[in-house]
Every structure is written in structure tokens, then in C-alpha cells.
Design a protein that fits this description.
Layout: H1 5-15, E1 45-53, E2 59-68, E3 71-76, E4 87-93, E5 95-97, H2 130-137, E6 140-145, E7 153-156, E8 158-161, H3 168-171, E9 178-182, H4 209-228, H5 237-244, E10 249-253, H6 257-272, E11 279-283, H7 292-298, E12 301-304, E13 312-313, E14 318-319, H8 324-330, E15 335-337, H9 349-358, H10 363-370, H11 372-377, E16 395-398, E17 409-414, E18 417-420
Parallel strand pairs: 1-4, 5-6, 9-10, 10-11, 11-12, 12-15
Antiparallel strand pairs: 1-2, 2-3, 4-16, 6-8, 7-9, 13-14, 16-17, 17-18
Length: 423
């Protein structure tokens, strides 16, 4: 072997003793391998849409939505549709109907007395009613069920998903409490004056609109008095006091302008008397367009009934103008739309939004009237009404621009479950 400088350097390297730590230095532990971030679990559901109308005014193009455990876990625009993922033209949040009228008729209201604020309509809800499935097929994912308006104060409403387990409590949402009542001809319709010997418990007041108003005033006055005089307490008094304190929304059906006026005056009287300020919602306010300034003065929310061919609607023959929603929104009022529980056909909640747009509402305003506005009334804006990460996966899938006359709902997702398959 020829000894070269290269072999000499190699020998020194191989034969050198291992390096020692400096005196007094702590021995160095070998670095542990860095833990790799855990991979996200696979999505329970993925959907792709050319347009996602988020409900916040933002429109996401070519967006991929991922759903996990009933919530929207990811929302990414500018994505191509992965293979096998359902593709649709448009997606909006599931619609909400605050006046779905899916009560079980006379079983939903106790008529032995006119004031029953403590009764909960949930006990009479029939989840096997086919109208739940029909509503779900139209893109309505949440509804408010109220008692039949045969009492002056009928009781507590309940917010439910239109699809899910066949138990009311499993579908029930922890919404803001609702106290339901009515002003107009309906609460007194079955009553008659007691002439001679009463024949039934309908032999009583009220028998007129004025009597209905008196029942409302008396109920609130008695509830306030019962707080000072416990011997005057009665079932439902606490519900009425909560309503006066603004802890419970008071939803009053009032079709005509005279009944809407009565409801607003009732609220203002309670304020003058120092009893409280009602969180007032007028349901079926067809003639709200006649005196919008009064509603603005009282910051009243209005739920509009569905449009009819002739404009007349309701037991009192109220007239709903074609541009009512736009008139109210222009005055700064919050407006919600209702289809009164209409299933598939030409009068769904989506159609009502389209009709409101023909009356002057913008697309964003019409979308808000069936999503974000009713969600806010229920106190559920953190869960419902918009398409965003963390929100309930309640989605309406459309085959065109939502609310257009040529578009319809082709798919529905409720709590992450595909109720109507868009394929």
C-alpha cells in the first residue's frame, strides 16, 4: 500500500476517540422526533356548489363544504369538486318559518279558560305528521310551532327541527322562550253570551274584539298584582311577568291594522304603567303596511303571512299588499316571511321570498327574511341562519339562483344528515 496524505487523514478520522462534553457541561439528550400533527378525521359529508350564499352578504364561488358531527367544519371557496362529491348550483342556509302552523288543531290549546300562558304546546306535537317531511323537502329546516289561536293567550311555542329523532325533546331547540296569543276575531269566535243557564264553558266573555283586548290587559295587571299579593297568584303569572321583563318574546297574531294597533298600544300601556316593555312580534301582520310608523316607534318585528292570488287572507279578511315586505324594510323594520306550513307546490317559503323580491326586496333582504331574521327572533343566531364554520349543518341545495321562478330546492341537509338527496 502506498501511503498518501489522503489515507493519513482518513485513518485519523476513523481512529479518533469519540468527542466528550466540555467539563461541567450537562450531557446532551438526543432530540426526540417531532410529533406529527394528527390528521383531521374524514368529513361525514362533503358538498360542492357553484355559489354559496352565506347569509352575511358574501357569496363564495366554487365552494367545498365539509360537515362533521352535524356542524359545518370547513368552508373553502375556489375549489374544484372532488370525485364523487355531490355538486349543485347554489347553497343557502336552511330556511326558518316562525309561523309554520303545524299544531294539532284543538288538541294544541286548552280552551277551558282564555288565558293559558303556562301551557307548553310541545306536549301536543305529533312528529309523525307528514307535514314535517313535506316542509323539510322545501328547504325549511327549523320551525316554530305555536298553539291554535283560539285562546287570547294560548301558551308557549316550541322551536323544532323538521327532521331528526322521533322524540320532541331530541328535536327541540333551546330557543328564546315564546309566549303566544292572538288579538282579533278568532279568540272570541266560539264564545257566546250567557243568557239564562250556561250550556257550556263557551258561555263567557270575550265575545268582541274589545273583550279580547281586556283579557290581555287584565292578565298582565293580575300578574303584576300577584307579585305583591301572593294570594292572587295563578298558573302562568310568572310567564306573564317574564314577558313584561323582556325575558320572553310575546308573539301576537294580528291580521288587520286595527288589531296590530291594539297590540302596539297594549305594549305601550304596559310601559306607561311601569310594568315593563314587551319584546313584541306581530304574526300574520298582513296590514302592517297601513301604519308602519307605529311599528317603527315601538321597534316591533313583523312576520308576514303568505301571499294569495286575491290579496285577502286570514279569518278577518286582511289585505296583504304585494309590496308589504319592502315597505316595512324601507322603514327599518325587521321582517320575517312565512308560508304557514305550505309543503311542495307553488306557495313554499322559498316562493314567498321570491314574491317579496318582486315587491321590491333585494335578494339579500329576502334571504335574511327566511334565515337570519327568524334565527335572531329565536335567539339562535349562533347556530342557525348562515353558512359558516361551526354553524349547524342545515342547508338548502338549489338547482339555480335561490328564489328564482325557475329554481327549486333539490337537496336538503339537516344536522348533517341528507334528508333530500340532490343526486
Amino acid at each position: 500500500m502506498i501511503w498518501t496524505p489522503f489515507l493519513h487523514a482518513a485513518c485519523l478520522t476513523l481512529c479518533a476517540p469519540p468527542l466528550q462534553d466540555a467539563p461541567g457541561a450537562e450531557p446532551q439528550e438526543p432530540e426526540a422526533p417531532k410529533a406529527q400533527p394528527a390528521a383531521a378525521p374524514p368529513a361525514d359529508l362533503r358538498l360542492h356548489a357553484e355559489r354559496v350564499y352565506t347569509g352575511t352578504g358574501e357569496i363564495l364561488k366554487n365552494a367545498l363544504i365539509e360537515v362533521r358531527e352535524g356542524k359545518i367544519s370547513s368552508l373553502r371557496p375556489g375549489r374544484s369538486a372532488p370525485e364523487g362529491v355531490p355538486q349543485v348550483k347554489a347553497i343557502t342556509a336552511g330556511m326558518i318559518d316562525l309561523s309554520a302552523r303545524l299544531h294539532s288543531n284543538f288538541n294544541s290549546v286548552e280552551q277551558s279558560t282564555e288565558v293559558q300562558p303556562h301551557l307548553d304546546v310541545a306536549g301536543s306535537v305529533n312528529l309523525y305528521d307528514k307535514r314535517f317531511a313535506r316542509l323539510a323537502r322545501t328547504g325549511v329546516t327549523t320551525i316554530l310551532v305555536n298553539p291554535l289561536d283560539r285562546n287570547v293567550i294560548g301558551g308557549r311555542g316550541v322551536a323544532l327541527k323538521t327532521h331528526g329523532p322521533m322524540e320532541v325533546e331530541a328535536r327541540r331547540l333551546k330557543a328564546r322562550p315564546i309566549l303566544r296569543g292572538a288579538i282579533g276575531s278568532e279568540p272570541s269566535a266560539a264564545n257566546h253570551a250567557a243568557v239564562g243557564r250556561p250550556t257550556d264553558f263557551y258561555s263567557r266573555r270575550p265575545t268582541t274584539r274589545m273583550g279580547v283586548e281586556w283579557e290581555w290587559r287584565k292578565a298582565f295587571f293580575d300578574a303584576v298584582a300577584a307579585k305583591r299579593l301572593p294570594e292572587m297568584d295563578f298558573p302562568g303569572a310568572e310567564d306573564l311577568r317574564e314577558a313584561l321583563a323582556g325575558k320572553r318574546t310575546v308573539m301576537i297574531q294580528a291580521w288587520t291594522t286595527q288589531d296590530i294597533r291594539t297590540a302596539v298600544y297594549l305594549d305601550e300601556e304596559m310601559q306607561r304603567e311601569g310594568f315593563g316593555d314587551l319584546d313584541l312580534v306581530i304574526d300574520a301582520g298582513a296590514e302592517a303596511w297601513k301604519e308602519p310608523a307605529m311599528l317603527v316607534r315601538n321597534s316591533t318585528i313583523v312576520v308576514l303571512p303568505p301571499h294569495t292570488a286575491g290579496g285577502r287572507i286570514g279569518s278577518d279578511g286582511a289585505f296583504l299588499a304585494w309590496n308589504t315586505a319592502n315597505q316595512l324594510v324601507e322603514q327599518g323594520l325587521t321582517v320575517c316571511l312565512s308560508a304557514h306550513g305550505a309543503g311542495p307546490g307553488p306557495a313554499t317559503l322559498g316562493h314567498q321570498a321570491g314574491f317579496a323580491m318582486r315587491g321590491g326586496l333585494s335578494f339579500d333582504q329576502a334571504l335574511a327574511a327566511v334565515t337570519t331574521a327568524p334565527a335572531a327572533v329565536l335567539g339562535l343566531s349562533d347556530r342557525l341562519g348562515t353558512v359558516a364554520e361551526g354553524m349547524d349543518a342545515d342547508l338548502a341545495l338549489w338547482n339555480g339562483r335561490p328564489f328564482a321562478a325557475t329554481s327549486r330546492v333539490t337537496g336538503v341537509v339537516i344536522d348533517g344528515t341528507v334528508v333530500v338527496n340532490p343526486r
